[in-house]
Amino acid sequence: FTKNGDVVTLPRGGSDTTGSFAAHALDALLYENYTNDVIRRVSPDVVEDALQLEKITYYEALELAYMGFGILKEEAIVPCMEKLIPIHVINTLTPERRTKILAYRNPDGYDVTGIAYKSGFGSINIKKVLRTRQEDPSLSPYVVHTELGVGGIGDFPIEQIMTSVSNISFLIPGKRFTDEVVHNLKRHLVEYFKLHENDIDVRHNISLLAVVGQFMRDRVGINYRAAGALALSDISTSHLIQGGSELSILYGVHEPNTEPIRAREGIRAIYREFFGDSIFGKFLQEQKR
Prior knowledge:
alpha+beta, 6-stranded antiparallel β-sheet, 4-stranded mixed β-sheet, 10 strands, about 25% strand
């Protein structure tokens, strides 16, 4: 509704979400979303003429949408997912070309489904040696006092958490990562947890690269091949995150500035490994023989 009470659809950029909610409300048998392209294995702005995805699951689509795939937003997937309504993303000019989003699909012969990236993160790294052996080893105070910030108003919505025996690292969207807010948070954490100023390390301009696939957990050497492709392109990683569902692997890359130059280069390298001329995959096969 508008402020005047008129019923409207969401504006341009939100029509896919409008259609998904309509399909949900109507218990539709199918939701067709006509757009300027189908869903590809990687964003066409990084790899021109990337391979098309014929079928993909809801969860794979959610992972890729979260990491920056522009064809569909996360909000446009969930309503149909709740009622198991199939989504067909259709190329308007060539309607016979479409990507089907379903609850399940058979393996398609590729080890991964798609590759995506999202840039503009900052990181807060807290050094706390042997935290897990303290009387109260809970991680929650560090999460709460970082996420709520000084004023308790959610200055830093944490997106990813990594821990070790001596460090706790949080990845935070860069839009909230201003110098003033970071300074105030750092002061707050030092005072509350009785830390030294050097115990908190701050980094800007981090991009996340995601390798996504429904069947990756059944494949050997996915991380080896992706990390090898990055290393061959002289790209080092600052973070490595694998979700509990084993549906995706995330690599953090520190950029020299606000432009995701290394992320794009890394995406192209991983794409070549899994969908082009594989180097590390061939090496693994030779070693098995």
